[in-house]
Backbone:
């Protein structure tokens, strides 16, 4: 039987999104919400098509979805490659295929293909993710479309595919990789944001990153070598080096970065001794993590200046507070925060938002549509909306966990991961706490490709779940 709570939340979100699109694109002399001349009328048409798509999916045999997962993935990859060459240039990207009056973005549908293919591959008999060959293949399934979409100049959409790492973690991926991802982001932000900030002659960016590396080295060693005294000895080493450096600093200025390198080197030697003493290869992991982390820290400037595009650099600098550009790159976020802040606790009322009505916020009916909710419905409305999304995600996870086979469970977690990423990043960029990468808010942002893509993802899971009971 179809999961009714999920369908109810879905219907609430798409129709709330429809009303919000009307509010975001509303002019004081505007026509009816049903008029196809406006964005709201067109979105209603996309909603109608999404309903048909949902109905067709519910009629499918789930065994066909599993059987044709690889062909669907293969065809999707070919379409993504073809899109690079036939798609027109839209704001610098080649990601939209124009079919008469309708434009389709294949990247929105490729999320479904990747989720399906990943579920099929990882649900194979005797599949073990920790086996290197299996892990590499799973990563390739994710990264092939990601790289193609980057070639389409749609970096924001490509980053969504990183959300699939949560699925890999759920299915047995070592926590080291998840730690590496979190650490990389943290090191990148700290090294970049505080690169030109100094404490005496010490670069604060390097100081903060190396401090975290020291802490990671100690904690990893302690978690692997569980005997008492390990943490105490490694901590005493750090305290001793810090004390000696402090004494020297009284007489001559000292770069504290060298003290932290000494802590890493000394503790690494201690960890190596423990490894040789116990014949434990695992104790080499903390040392390897420390070395890779230091190398990554040195690569941050190169990645930022040579790999990222100038507009991406500017967006990151504005998001991190390194630059203040309220009339340029930071204009969208600045106006969005003004709109949300002006809504207060209860908001200004539906169709009464001045910032959105006077079109101060660019892309306010697509990527920045959350600011319309914040201005018109205030903190209360925004909280209710986020609560609905959280309820939907929790429901998806619940459905995933009750599946009888690995295919349904893995596919469900793929869907949950995509929704989590879109919700967190979209709301984060509207509030100015994450870089603006241009991804839609599910069921709210205007557009058929986005709405249809999320509908396909969600209703395929509902169809898989319905087949578990044998009734729809």
Residues:
């Amino acid at each position: 039987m179809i999961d009714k709570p999920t369908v109810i939340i879905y219907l609430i979100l798409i129709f709330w999104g429809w009303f919000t699109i009307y509010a975001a694109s509303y002019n004081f002399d505007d026509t009816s919400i049903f008029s196809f001349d406006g964005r709201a009328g067109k979105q209603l048409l996309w909603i109608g098509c999404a309903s048909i798509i949902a109905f067709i999916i519910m009629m499918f045999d789930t065994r066909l979805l599993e059987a044709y997962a690889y062909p669907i993935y293969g065809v999707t990859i070919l379409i993504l490659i073809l899109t690079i060459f036939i798609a027109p240039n839209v704001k610098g990207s080649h990601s939209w295929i124009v079919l008469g009056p309708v434009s389709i973005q294949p990247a929105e549908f490729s999320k479904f293909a990747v989720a399906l293919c990943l579920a099929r591959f990882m649900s194979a008999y005797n599949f073990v993710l920790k086996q290197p060959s299996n892990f590499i293949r799973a990563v390739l399934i994710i990264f092939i479309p990601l790289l193609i979409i980057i070639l389409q100049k749609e970096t924001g959409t490509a980053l969504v595919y990183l959300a699939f790492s949560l699925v890999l973690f759920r299915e047995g991926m070592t926590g080291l990789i998840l730690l590496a991802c979190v650490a990389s982001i943290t090191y990148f932000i700290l090294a970049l944001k505080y690169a030109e900030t100094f404490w005496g002659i010490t670069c604060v960016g390097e100081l903060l990153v190396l401090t975290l590396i020291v802490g990671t080295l100690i904690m990893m060693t302690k978690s692997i070598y569980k005997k008492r005294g390990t943490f105490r000895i490694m901590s005493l080493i750090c305290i001793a080096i810090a004390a000696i450096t402090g004494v020297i600093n009284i007489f001559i200025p000292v770069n504290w970065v060298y003290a932290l390198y000494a802590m890493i080197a000394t503790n690494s030697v201690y960890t190596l001794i423990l490894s040789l003493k116990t014949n434990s290869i695992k104790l080499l992991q903390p040392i390897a993590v420390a070395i890779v982390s230091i190398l990554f820290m040195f690569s941050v400037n190169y990645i930022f200046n040579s790999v990222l595009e100038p507009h991406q650099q500017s967006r990151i600098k504005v998001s991190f507070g390194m630059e203040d550009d309220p009339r340029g790159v930071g204009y969208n976020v600045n106006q969005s925060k003004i709109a949300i802040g002006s809504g207060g606790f209860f908001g200004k009322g539906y169709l009464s938002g001045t910032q959105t009505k006077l079109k101060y916020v660019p892309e306010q009916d697509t990527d920045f549509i959350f600011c319309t909710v914040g201005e018109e419905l205030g903190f209360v409305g925004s909280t209710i909306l986020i609560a609905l999304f959280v309820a939907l995600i929790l429901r998806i996870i619940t459905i995933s966990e009750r599946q009888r086979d690995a295919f349904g469970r893995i596919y469900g977690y793929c869907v949950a991961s995509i929704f989590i990423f879109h919700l967190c990043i979209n709301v984060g960029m509207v509030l100015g706490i994450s870089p603006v990468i241009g991804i839609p808010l599910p069921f709210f942002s205007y557009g058929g490709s986005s709405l249809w893509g999320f509908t396909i993802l969600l209703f395929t899971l509902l169809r898989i779940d319905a087949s578990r009971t044998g009734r729809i």
In short: The mean pLDDT is 87.
